[in-house]
Amino acid sequence: MSEISRRSAVGLGLGLGLGAAAGLTGCGTDVEGDPSAAERARQQAKEGPKVAPRLIGDGSTAFTGKQPGQPGPPARLERGQTPPQFVVFSWDGAGEVGNGLFPRFLQLAEQHNAHMTFFLSGVYLLPESKKRLYHPPNNPVGASDIGYLTDGHVKETLKYVRQAWLDGHEIGTHFNGHFCGGSGSVAHWTPAQWGKEIEQARSFIKTWRTNTGWRRQEPLPFDYDAELIGGRTPCLLGQDNLLPMARKLGWRYDASSPGGVQRWPEKKEGLWDLPLQGIPFPGHSFEVLSMDYNILANQSKNSTKAPSYNYPAWKTQATESYLAGFERAYESNRAPYFIGNHFEEWNGGIYMDAVEEALKRFADRKEVRLVSFRQFVDWLDAQDKAVLAKLRTLEVGQRPPGGWKTFLA
User: Fold this and answer.
1) Do 124 and 178 contact (CB within 8 A), yes or no?
2) Radius of gyration of the chain from Cα atoms?
3) Contact at 8 Å (CB) between 89 and 291?
4) Which end of the chain has fewer CB within 10 Å, C or N?
């Protein structure tokens, strides 16, 4: 069952975003943007790991060496250099439920040298027959507001998570049961309870072979304890209590802020704070949060199956909203642009079509890097702190006074 299909409108909470509340140079290539390097990275990803897998634990995961398809080491901005325009596409839940959306966007990413972040829900690798292994904080044993996948869909999810990592994408976490409402909401969890939830999410991914009994399936080709450096909470709730535990676990970023703006990020509790952002919403005076569901919530009042005569206009509006957010950053402060998505066919799949069209349009522009959150924080950590501090002085839509050559001289 897909991530939103069993959620109520109340359960979506802050998923309504701003509108409802208000009324790697090139595209992931090496440092120099050498096209031949991009081709080598793609070929390396297709060939898979160069070392014999070293199974971890029960063999659900394995160490296979350095991740394929990665850009070269990040370089510092030079004096007077225009910053790249970073764009991060991320996916909440990241399960394949038979609609073909996971492989569709893996193929799109390959075609455009893009890398993405897939926030995998741990229960998506836990068979429903074993659901009582899940002990969610403040909720009944085995409860999950997003349900559980069928065995067939668990196998498909394993297949595409494996391919995603080999293609150079990041595997983060969307935790487990996606509780957004009532006393069991993640909004009320303590740091210790977040720790329990994270450990269970990691465990379900590291022990799927034991839990499913499937021994012929290939392991996931990464050490998840080393891979996991960030996540996004359900409905963008509970970040304040999550951060102390995330810092203790050595995470490097969090993408759970309940609404940000298009400015250069800073750290919160020692982690890079990478929020979804308010972006222009054509035809309205307010802005909408840069996520598919938030656009839907403002178009169809939470309905995922509205009358189809609305779809063409809504798809155009969603596409133009994504493009407007990009253009505002690209032509001004070059703030990184974060777009959140779900593998869903809401309202005829128009939001998937809109995000695909947006990605294609972004990829054709100069100085654009379509990267994962991991790749982006690698770049941030390589920069001079004074330069980042100066970039943060630029407001939303503000061009650098005197141009980049003067501003970063």
Assistant:
1) no
2) 20
3) no
4) C
In this predicted structure, the answer to whether residue 12 has a pLDDT above a threshold of 90 is: no
* Exposure letters 356-380 (e unless 16+ CB within 10 A, then b): ebbbeebbeeeebbbbbbbbbbbbb
- Give the Cα separation of 118 and 89 in Å (integer): 9
Contact by Cβ (8 Å): 67, 41: no
Q: How far is CA 15 from CA 164, 282, 285, 292, in A?
A: 26, 19, 19, 10
Site of tokens 């509780």: 179
Rounded alpha-carbon distances, angstroms, from residue 204 to 7, 54, 130, 201, 342: 22, 19, 10, 5, 21
Position 282: which residue type? P
Choice between 151 and 31, residue whose per-residue pLDDT is larger: 151
- Beta carbons within 8 Å of 282's beta carbon, 6+ residues apart: 317, 320, 321, 324
Phi, psi torsion values for 238, nearest 5 degrees:
85, 15
What is the C-alpha separation between 363 and 409, in angstroms, rounded?
28
Give dist(CA 2, CA 346) in Å, integer.
11
Query: Of 14, 46, 15, which Cα lies nearest the Cα of 346?
Result: 15
Whether pLDDT at 360 is above 50: yes
Distance CA 289, CA 259 (A): 7
DSSP β-bridge partners for residue 338? 88
Contact criterion met (CB below 8 Å) for 347 and 300: yes
Tell me whether residue 301 is exposed, middle or buried, using C-beta atoms within 10 angstroms of its C-beta: 0 to 12, 13 to 18, 19 or more.
exposed
Q: Residue 226 and residue 54: Cα distance in Å, rounded? A: 14
Instruction: Report the distance separating Cα 171 and Cα 1, nearest Å.
Output: 20
**Nearest of 268, 225, 232 to residue 250 by alpha carbon:** 225
Which residue, among 249, 234, 255, has the nearest Cα to 372 in the 3D structure? 255
Structure tokens at 46: 């297709």
DSSP 8-state symbol, 126: S
Query: Which runs of consecutive H residues, i.e. helices, occur in 207-235?
Result: 208-212, 224-227
In DSSP terms, 253 is beta-bridged to 272
pLDDT tens for each residue of 102-138: 999 999 999 999 999 999 999 999 999 999 999 999 9
